[in-house]
Amino acid sequence: MKRFTWFNATSLTLGFAFLYLPMIILVIYSFNASKLVTVWAGFSTKWYGELMRNDQMLDAAWVTIKVAVASSTLATILGTMAAYVMVRGGRFMGRTLFSGMIFAPLVMPEVITGLSLFLLFKPIFTQMGAHTIILAHATFAMCYVSVVVSSRLVSFDKSLEEAALDLGCTPFESFRLVTLPIIAPAVISGWLLAFTLSLDDLVIANFTTGPDATTLPMKIWSAVRLGVNPQINALSTLMIGVVTIGVIIASISTKRAALRQKADEQAAAG
Amino acid sequence: MTLDVFAPWEDPTEKPLIQFKGVTKRYGSFTAIDNLTQDIYAREFFALLGPSGCGKTTMMRMLAGFETPTEGQILIAGQDMAAVPPNERAVNMMFQSYALFPHLSIWDNIAFGLRRMKMPKAQIEERVEDMLRLTRMTQFSRRKPHQVSGGQRQRVALARSLARAPKLLLLDEPLGALDKKLREETQFELMDIQEKTGTTFVIVTHDQEEAMTVASRVAVMDHGKIIQVSTPPKIYEEPNSVYVADFIGDVNIIEGAAHKTSDDGYDIKWAEGQEPIHAKTTAVLNEGQKAFVALRPEKISIAEEKPEGAVNAVKGKIIDIGYLGNISTYHVELPGGVMVKAQATNTRRLSRRNFSWEDEVWLSWTLTAASVLER
Amino acid sequence: MMRRLFLISVPYLWLLALFLIPFVIVLKIALSDTALSIPPYTPQIDISAGWEGLKGFFAALDMENFVWLTEDDLYWKAYVSSLKIATISTLLALLVGYPIAYGMAQAPQEWRATLMMLIILPFWTSFLIRVYAWMGILSQEGLLNQLLMGLGLISDPLIILNTNTAVYIGIVYTYLPFMILPIYSALEKLDASLLEAAEDLGCSRFKAFWLVTIPLSKGGIIAGSFLVFIPAIGEFVIPSLLGGSSTLMIGKVLWEEFFSNRDWPVAAAVAVVLLLILIIPIILFQRNEQKQREAE
Lengths: 270, 375, 296
Description:
The complex is a heterotrimer. Chain A is an all-alpha fold. Chain A contains 11 helices and no strands. In chain A, α3 crosses α10 and α4 crosses α6. Chain C is mainly α. Chain C has a single domain, classed as MetI-like (MetI-like fold, Orthogonal Bundle), CATH 1.10.3720. In chain C, about 75% of the residues lie in helices and about 0% in strands. Chain C is built from 14 helices and no strands. Chain C is globular and about 75 Å long. The interface between A and B is medium-sized, with 23 and 31 residues.
């Protein structure tokens, strides 16, 4: 049985302290009564109250969620198709270009993606706004989705699809009844990834938006450029809280499922 | 031969269920199937046997419709299958990995193919229950595939592929994932089910024992060609080539030159200064032609003294003894360095066994024990 | 067949329209002249003029914007400084990340899933917020200075925020998971008996680490380094929030050309050069990935 050596324990402790302390401090100071973020002046939840009364902030949050839902759904559909083409498509004209276009957005600086999409949209749309952000986010998020989904498809036993065909499915039925239910966890995590990317994006949204659509990151950006702002601390705390709860629930449920599977297999073998 | 023996391939009026007509399959420059012609009859249990890469799986996948022939024609019940997609063929396949749908219960796995046929609900239920009973899986029907053992999964896969009552069932290494004991039990179960349902089975395997046990006919394949097709006893006793003799069971191959004798047999001169081997054969060989004597180890008797009146008898020295419990294999070196394996049943206890290393012994066999092969 | 065509063409056309064509436009605009900073830029393709129009179009394209980039030393200084900042940050991230990845790979089996989750968790939280969190820590009256002065280590507050040091800290902090994960997955695959064999053959523990562990985790180190280096070069948010007016990074320059100066052709030219700089590390990265895949 392996145990922690003092060296490993130290490096892990320091490492995780580095990763988590800044966020913990951020959360603590969101409950600070003082407007000066660096001086502790007692516990208070007044910044949360102010945040709730900040209509501009709430509007931006609403726009962000709408954009994120629409773009991640679009990205999931396109990305799953792209993954399917990459893994099962066989050979076709321009396959190399296709895989290049899937890979490139992952390493492309956001400023370039943003600028290029702005230059594309400018002459096409009379006004830019939420719709153009959705198109932009769907485009770069679909590449992430396709990476997640294709890594699942690669390990997918192809004979399952053949069995479905053999038992009388049309190719589409075989996808709907067999492939999709089995790769569903990867598709869902792809969607969540796309959703988070969209929620998080400042640069591309800033390039492709119009006067009517301000997203939350843009709002946060204009606030924090002027310095530390306790309302933003409160907002950050809420966002960190949601993500933490979500990730913990997800990891517990996958762990449980894995344990159940293991127990079942042992019971079956015994 | 009595009439009730199942041998449709010997009846010229019988129509074959499956016909391969000059089928070739190429993948780029690699030829997987090489101009192959073969008939398979209804209710047969037909085994495709060969090493991996010999083309047996390709043949099966062409029957299922997952591959199309590059040249030639495949007919099932007289119909050309070229344009028929897999989902419209009255053919079902049991996959090597079983390919059970992990997200569906065993019941739903078996019902899967029936639902695609738009069968009424009540009828589906009845059919699934029948299949569960046939494969003795009724009590597990609500479980998921990963909740049952390997042998049970194999039975579910069989039930699922039989549920649609296919004309033809394809089995791709169906028992490969099972341990030896379970495999032997399951072989008999398969034969039983095949007989009960009257379905034509085509099985792909690399395990010669399995093919011999279950099949009505065995096709031994190599490099995209069928080398020999025959019933298991004939394949074993009358191989048509060194390849088949060697692939099926254990065999001694002795090379020599053939000379016709007065009776319908040949003398094979295999070593200078040694008595030639006398063997009876239906093969017709030229005088002095190179020939191979294929001799099964269990057909050789081993004795201390030269047996009286033996047709073939040679003296040799025991080099090695392999003790397997019920039998022992003796590796005997003949004059000139030829090594021959001979098998003897251990009817007596080990302590009373009469041969040991370095012993000089006589090997003998009858006129009909060996086969004479040209290649 | 129709189905397959549909399946291929939908994502393909989408990417062509929203990824490839925009780049062609960027390239075209980088070669155009500014006409009052608004479209249409000259030249435009005159379709009705046919071949002659096309020839005229190409003749009117010029390298003026690129010449401009070389003349004003702001740009090449920004490129060099971006490369420098990205390189230093990558090395720092490697230094910080390797011991963490090593500690994770050595941790008891039942701990690993949790540690892994703790590494991935920050990735799901907002990038902007994680960078912002450092502003309160690094500022002159921030927590770090309060702590150090409280301990009596320094008498005057250190100036960290709005310097390159803050940018290094920000990049290392936000991209650390990208460094840790590939190294961890390389180290996790490493068979412990290899180290025992090395020690059995006379290596000291440190020597065994140097001669066995490091070479076998090389693929992970390379992958992790590129995953930090590539996005760091084009980074905009970190230098803007944590860096100072003297911090030059190309992402920031592009942003300012676009949003402050409204000079789109120059912004496009800056983007084209940035892309050219990135091509080499991207190709190297892909080659490393390919090698890793083939080794498996």
